[in-house]
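So, could you explain this one?
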Amino acid sequence: MIVSSSDPSYALIVTDASIKINVTTSITYIHVCNKPIIKTLYHTVNVTTTKAELFAIRCGINQATSISGISKIVVITDLLYAT
């Protein structure tokens, strides 16, 4: 459990991406106060997993910054090689 998950000024963004039969799926979950706020799912063709994951992170950050009262954003992803 992340300590900041109970703080209303934190937005927790969880992203993942995968490729199956040349279709890339990226998904983003945004939680505030340990409650799900936004879920976004994208499907694209002919895109690498890295680009899809970075796109999902960018969209998650854009959505989290539009939520009133958010001053801190924590991003959790399994895409270590892109960092």
The CA atoms of residues 1 and 69 lie 22 Å apart. Residues 49-65 form the longest helix (17 residues).
